[in-house]
């Protein structure tokens, strides 16, 4: 589905390019006029009037609504034409293949009964029709004709032993039962449809160039005109970029589609032998000659080699677990999907959701795509016992996902002609912030998966597992996309400000993206829920868990004795340093700087818990810190609020800000460092109770006090954000 969505959005972009080609420069002039009006109406100065800013933005959206709506119609039309043409080709392509494999005749007696039996066991209401193809056919295949599935066998299948015939029939029937016929032919149909739709803007521009060359040319003169016009078209920067990206998109889609179809072959083999002896299928795969394929054709092969299929039947965990190439492919597709969807979604008055803009709206389905395509299979593998405490190749998986995402952001088709704009996907910082945040979310997902599976015997699963995995990964990856996009935008904003420059741009942008975007409430609530789930899963113990024995040390998954001292030590260290050390002086007085400084001090308590628990237990401490760091922040928030209770003009609003904004900043820090922390090696052996009781509070106290002192005593850190605002 993710691959199909990327291809449909590519068709939508072709519709957008066609809109620009048909309308010419009129939409661009209209947008420039609207932007000029906005520049005149938008307030200036370091502290603009919020109501005037909102009115100017609303006027801009109203001014550009007509052009944007017309462009959206072309985008939707391009995607709709791609889908319609893909559905047509889905019906046409298998018929062409069947005709080429013909003549098709009913299979000899003895083939229909095994097909009926296999259909009944695999849950099909109607048995597929079994046919025999011509001499040119080497591989069996299945397709649908007039609503009924058909299995076409090569002539050589007649010489197989009876048990191998049944294995072959069950394999093809498993494809039908799993819906692979629709999946395979729809993917191929949409892929060819995108190729045709992407060529439409080129043909339109070519026809316009021919007509502008002096009237409608005669057919006899076309051979002399076409080479020069084609060279002139593709030598232009736009169409050169467009052509290269289109070729890259189609090649990537072909490789990913072939990999998906090869994986369906493995799953059809396993489905066909489920509950039965795999001996007949193994004999069939062993009997077949393992044809050698050139290395450059292997990525495009639609069927895996018999040797690979035989290995998958013998050891399914070696093939079906999360792979590095599969993880990179998912990241690549999401990297292409997110910018395209953000550009295709309606803006302004016609936007789909009332909160956020199209960027944050697109982050939700992108997060859902990563949750479904990567998170849920990973959690399923952990629960099935294929990956115990740390899945094999965890570091490679954590690196493959952001690497694929980075390539997708670079190669996505919607960047054509938009590279020099000020949009978030035209900023180089997006190429850093979004992959880093997604990698951090993936690291948190891996450790939470181990925590969720730690309280039960290996292989035991419940009906709630897919739902829990999808919900947790959706929250993690949606938050990662929000955090990455907001951080990149704020880096750009503070970099262009008069006070921008040096490392303070990063400091200002980082803090503003975490605490002053208007979405900190949702992010803080999501972190609080994850902290509660991590605590709840941590206190569960499997039956007969050795860590519950008297006198035993503390396991790496959770430290019930160490967490409370670590939280208390971090809170005491942060508050002691905040109130014992005077803050650095700022030119013009502190003013609201003290309140802003308190937010950073509150966050330092959570960071101290995070560092302490990871140092004690390794990567397993990341799951522990997700449960422990938010309570440490809230404890310091309450203490700061009580200390200044008499000075607050709006005490409940101050409590809300002190509780929510530090948690949002802590969530951003967690996403930033999630990759290296999850890549650490877990501690071997338990941590003794005496060590945990002594080391945890002292270590967290020292770390929290040090972080607070550094921020509080450094004018550049403590007041950089306010200085940037004061300087415009």
Task: Give your account of this protein's structure.
It is a single chain. The protein has 728 residues and is mainly α. 70% of the residues lie in helices and 2% in strands. The chain has 24 helices and four strands. The protein has helices at 2-23, 26-41, 50-101, 112-121, 162-177, 180-211, 222-234, 237-272, 279-287, 306-314, 316-320, 324-344, 358-383, 394-411, 430-453, 465-496, 504-515, 520-538, 560-580, 593-617, 620-643, 651-678, 689-713, 715-726; strands spanning 105-106, 129-132, 141-145, 148-153. A hairpin with a 2-residue loop joins strand 3 (141-145) and strand 4 (148-153). The model is unreliable at 386-392 and 541-558 (pLDDT under 50).
Contiguous helical run count: 24
Global geometry: flat
- Strand order within the widest beta sheet: 1-2-4-3
The separation of the N and C termini measures: 46 Å
């Amino acid at each position: 589905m993710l691959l199909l969505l990327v291809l449909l959005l590519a068709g939508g972009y072709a519709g957008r390019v066609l809109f620009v080609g048909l309308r010419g420069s009129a939409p661009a002039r209209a947008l420039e006029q609207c932007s000029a009006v906005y520049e005149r109406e938008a307030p200036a100065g370091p502290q603009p009037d919020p109501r005037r800013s909102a009115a100017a933005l609303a006027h801009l959206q109203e001014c550009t609504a007509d052009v944007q709506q017309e462009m959206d119609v072309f985008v939707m039309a391009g995607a709709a034409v791609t889908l319609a043409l893909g559905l047509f080709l889905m019906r046409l392509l298998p018929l062409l293949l069947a005709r080429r494999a013909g003549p098709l005749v009913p299979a000899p007696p003895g083939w229909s009964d095994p097909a009926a039996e296999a259909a009944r066991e695999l849950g099909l209401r109607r048995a597929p029709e079994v046919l025999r193809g011509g001499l040119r056919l080497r591989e069996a295949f299945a397709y649908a004709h007039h609503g009924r599935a058909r299995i076409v066998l090569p002539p050589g299948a007649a010489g197989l032993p009876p048990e191998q015939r049944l294995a072959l029939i069950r394999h093809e029937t498993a494809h039908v039962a799993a819906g692979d016929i629709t999946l395979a032919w729809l993917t191929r149909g949409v892929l060819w449809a995108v190729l045709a739709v992407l060529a439409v803007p080129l043909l339109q521009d070519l026809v316009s160039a021919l007509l502008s060359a002096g009237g409608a040319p005669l057919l006899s003169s076309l051979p002399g005109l076409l080479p020069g016009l084609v060279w002139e078209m593709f030598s232009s920067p736009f169409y050169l970029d467009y052509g290269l990206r289109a070729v890259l998109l189609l090649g990537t889609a072909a490789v990913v589609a072939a990999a998906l179809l090869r994986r369906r072959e493995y799953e059809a083999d396993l489905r066909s032998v489920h509950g039965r002896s795999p001996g007949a299928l193994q004999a069939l795969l062993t009997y077949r000659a393992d044809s050698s394929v050139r290395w450059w054709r292997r990525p495009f092969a639609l069927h895996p080699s018999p040797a690979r299929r035989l290995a998958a039947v013998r050891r399914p965990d070696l093939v079906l677990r999360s792979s590095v190439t599969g993880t990179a492919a998912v990241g690549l597709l999401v990297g292409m999907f997110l910018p395209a969807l953000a550009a295709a979604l309606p803006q302004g008055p016609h936007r789909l959701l009332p909160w956020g803009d199209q960027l944050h709206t697109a982050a939700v389905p992108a997060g859902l795509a990563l949750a479904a395509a990567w998170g849920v299979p990973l959690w399923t593998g952990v629960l099935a016992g294929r990956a115990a405490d740390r899945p094999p190749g965890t570091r490679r998986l954590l690196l493959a996902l952001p690497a694929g995402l980075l390539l997708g952001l670079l190669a996505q088709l919607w960047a054509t002609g938009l590279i020099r704009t000020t949009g978030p996907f035209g900023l180089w910082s997006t190429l850093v912030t979004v992959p880093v945040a997604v990698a951090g979310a993936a690291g948190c997902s891996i450790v939470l998966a181990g925590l969720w599976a730690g309280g039960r015997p290996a292989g035991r699963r419940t009906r709630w597992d897919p739902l829990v995995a999808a919900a947790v990964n959706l929250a993690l990856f949606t938050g990662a996309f929000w955090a990455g996009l907001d951080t990149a935008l704020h880096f750009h904003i503070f970099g262009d400000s008069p006070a921008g420059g040096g490392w303070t741009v990063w400091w200002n942008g980082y803090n503003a993206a975490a605490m002053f975007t208007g979405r900190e409430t949702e992010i803080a609530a999501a972190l609080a829920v994850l902290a509660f789930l991590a605590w709840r899963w941590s206190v569960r113990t499997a039956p007969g868990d050795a860590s519950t024995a008297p006198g035993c040390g503390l396991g790496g998954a959770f430290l019930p004795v160490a967490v409370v001292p670590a939280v208390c030590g971090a809170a005491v260290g942060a508050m002691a340093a905040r109130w014992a050390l005077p803050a650095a002086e700022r030119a013009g007085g502190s003013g609201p700087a003290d309140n802003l400084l308190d937010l950073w001090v509150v966050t330092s308590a959570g960071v101290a818990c995070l560092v302490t628990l990871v140092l004690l237990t390794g990567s397993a401490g990341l799951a522990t810190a997700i449960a422990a760091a938010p309570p440490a922040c809230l404890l310091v928030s309450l203490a700061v609020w009580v200390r200044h209770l008499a000075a607050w003009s709006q005490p409940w609003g101050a409590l809300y800000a002190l509780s929510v904004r530090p948690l949002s900043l802590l969530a951003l820090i967690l996403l930033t460092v999630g990759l290296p922390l999850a890549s650490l090696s877990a501690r071997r052996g338990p941590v003794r109770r005496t060590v945990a009781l002594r080391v945890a509070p002292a270590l967290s106290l020292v770390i929290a006090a040090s972080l607070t002192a550094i921020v509080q005593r450094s004018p550049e850190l403590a007041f950089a954000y306010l200085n940037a605002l004061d300087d415009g």
